[in-house]
Input
Amino acid sequence: MQVKAAVAHVPGKMVIENVELAAPKATEVCVRILAAGVCHTDSAGLNAVVPVTFPAIFGHEGVGVVESVGVGVDTLAPGDRVILSFPSCGHCKYCIGGQPYACDELNRLFFDGSYKDGTRRFSKDGEDISSFFGQGSFADHVVVDARNAVKVDVSDEDLVKLCSLGCGVQTGAGAVLNTLVPRPGSTLAVFGCGGVGMAAIMAAKIRGCSRIFAVDVVPSRLELARECGATDLINGKEVDAVAAIKELTGGGCNYSVECTGVPMLINQALSCLCRLGRCCLVSVTGDAEVPIALEPQLMNPSVSLIGVTEGGANPQTFIPQLVHFFKEGRLPVDKLVKFYKFDDIDTAFEDSHAGVTIKPILLMD
Ligand SMILES: NC(=O)c1ccc[n+]([C@@H]2O[C@H](COP(=O)([O-])OP(=O)(O)OC[C@H]3O[C@@H](n4cnc5c(N)ncnc54)[C@H](O)[C@@H]3O)[C@@H](O)[C@H]2O)c1
Ligand SMILES: [Zn+2]
Ligand SMILES: [Zn+2]
Output
């Protein structure tokens, strides 16, 4: 079928045009996209910071309605509302063990743009086009594997606000709820109050942390962080964040999450911890070489540094939990979003880059 999509023929530039979309194969479904969030990893892909095969269609926070299903798909049916998330092979020992975020095929399935069988679904004039994260949801229809389409029970009005549950929110909330799992009453610092960091703050509140430090350099983001659950706001441009956290906690906090994408800040996220503290790194920083003083920062204070992809989540079980928290008013991700017409995709990317909008969402109609 012919679909409308934002195609990057070369790095750095997208053009909205008609392309061909193949029918779903076995284990796959075709989804009519209602909306798609813009994540920083889309920019990383568009600018070839991660290994993408061009031409490519970006977008990996799609939501929509199932239109048709491939042979053998028995978990989804036409008409189902779905949140699309990251792909995984389903066969490696990590996928079988319920840890698809550690899938052996992650790099190829996320970035290269091919599906599990190595082929692609979009094309134009006989040339294959990659689908970022097995989605390519900057398009009015996509084909995805049923593994990365999560059925949810929400109205269309809510569904379009929940795009980032598929990546950004899952990443930040999951770093806290799945990876760090803070004890109620403990203290936690979040570096970077973008979509990922705000979700980490909301999750820390859900876990009952007693002090939640929000560190950013943009005053309006810090104010919003308070609405999301932060108890202490720290402007990293004006004060020494590490000294402030150590003073306010009497020696350092128990947990930290690094969500700025600024490589050197990992040192602050480690240094603000007390002994036995644990830091979760979720930022995508390219291949920057960041010096970490292993003995004084990690070994001596018995501090752990944990890297995690996609919030250590199994989307099929974690996204419904996040939807439940949203319905209860405990995960107010609607505070982060601003809607854009699909045709204004370049403005949405610019506003995200400039820090004007935390979570731009493209509406396909
Ligand atoms: N691990 C994963 O699976 C995964 C998934 C999604 C996103 N990410 C990555 O997570 C990171 C955060 O994503 P996002 O969408 O929230 O990004 P964002 O750009 O919206 O947020 C980053 C925040 O950091 C703040 N910041 C910048 N410099 C700072 C400094 N010196 N001190 C304090 N704060 C500073 C910015 O003001 C901004 O609010 C990105 O690197 C993104 O690529 C990782
Ligand atoms: Zn796998
Ligand atoms: Zn993402």
User: Anything to note?
Assistant: The first strand starts at residue 2 and ends at 10. Residues 168-180 form the longest helix (13 residues). Residues 88-89, 91-92, 94-95, 103-105 surround zinc ion (ligand 2) (CB under 6 Å). The chain has two domains: 2-160+332-363, 172-308.
